[in-house]
Amino acid sequence: MRKQLMIPLALLMLVMAGCGDKQEEKKELTAEERTVLYQSAIENARDAEMNEAVPAITSEEADLAPAIFGLIGVTEEDMQAYAIAISPVNIKAYGIAVILPAEGREAVVVDGLQAFIDRQKSNFQTYLADQYAIAEKARLETLEDGTVLMVMCEDSDQVLDTIKTAIEAGT
Fold first, then answer.
1. For residue 139, what are the β-bridge partners?
2. Is the pLDDT of residue 24 over 70?
3. Strand-by-strand arrangement of the 95-101 sheet
4. Most buried of the four, 89, 105, 129, 135, by CB within 10 Å?
5. What is the value of pTM for the model shown?
6. For the chain, what is the total number of helices (H) and then of strands (E)?
7. What residues contact 121, with CB distance under 8 A and at least 6 apart?
């Protein structure tokens, strides 16, 4: 009798287990958590030398923040969360920006990053061919969660994919 009850009970448990939602719902990250995720994604996609030479800015209190924000045409109010690593000197086409725009500010962020890319191409077109080639291959994408990602560096496709994968895994 006990065996007869166990088999239907086991089948019922299997059926019930199959009814659950297979996809765990991901929790919404806070702005601070996103900023940490973005900074980590950038740093893990680069070597230690680049992390030291061009650190990611994650706060308007950073020394270079006003200059970098000016280069990409954004303000703190345009961004909910961000990590930005851009070379402020005009001898290297280098920049990585991961930004979650503030509500209604996506166009400002995308336009500012595109203008930065265009300016870098123009700056290097006639005087540093290797840097012009890097600027030409810059990538600008908006991810599914609204994060705007700009990558301008050597191996930009690989760096973009690495950062994108880290962000998608963390959100």
1. 151
2. no
3. 79-86, 95-101, 148-152, 139-142
4. 135
5. 0.83
6. 7, 4
7. 132, 135, 136, 138
